[in-house]
């Protein structure tokens, strides 16, 4: 939800706070998936080069993703932090670069702990929970924006939405999950 909410907030923030035109938003919308495609392969090469586990890659990419709301929060006190048009392009590249990798690694880890023969059931549940709760982030950021009259405050919520899953993933025992899937 944090990843999807960042995208939603970015569009609203760009339109409301930075006054982006539809053309600018469309260009960012094209840049993001192109960079996601590239990011998947670059992060895969990093994983292979350093021989890192998928769980480690999720923690790395999610941590890099957490820098996005931090950067937005810097805008409260600095002359940058999503205040300029060039930052939109930087964000589109960075967001896309990280998005493809985090989605890929999450699905790989999930797939590795799914019992054989139950892939359809559990990946269906994965998608339902992924998309079924996608309303929560935009709802909360909308409430924050309505209450504070500044969408920038929603970066606090986004930061929490990004850091809690990182803490949770640290507790996941992947090998036990694989063993339990085999024994199921």
UniProtKB/TrEMBL annotation:
This is 615_t:CDS:1. It comes from Dentiscutata heterogama.
């Amino acid at each position: 939800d944090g990843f999807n909410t960042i995208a939603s907030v970015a569009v609203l923030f760009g339109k409301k706070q930075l006054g982006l035109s539809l053309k600018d938003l469309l260009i960012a919308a094209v840049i993001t998936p192109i960079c996601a495609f590239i990011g998947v392969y670059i992060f895969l090469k990093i994983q292979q080069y350093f021989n890192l586990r998928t769980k480690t890659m999720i923690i790395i990419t999610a941590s890099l993703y957490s820098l996005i709301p931090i950067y937005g929060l810097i805008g409260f006190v600095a002359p940058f932090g999503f205040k300029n048009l060039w930052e939109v392009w930087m964000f589109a590249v960075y967001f896309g670069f990280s998005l493809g990798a985090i989605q890929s690694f999450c699905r790989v880890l999930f797939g590795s702990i799914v019992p054989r023969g139950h892939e359809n059931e559990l990946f269906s549940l994965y998608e339902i929970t992924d998309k079924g709760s996608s309303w929560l982030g935009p709802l909360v950021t909308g409430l924050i924006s309505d209450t504070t009259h500044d969408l920038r405050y929603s970066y606090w919520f986004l930061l929490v939405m990004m850091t809690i899953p990182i803490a949770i993933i640290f507790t996941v025992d992947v090998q036990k999950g694989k063993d339990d899937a085999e024994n199921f």
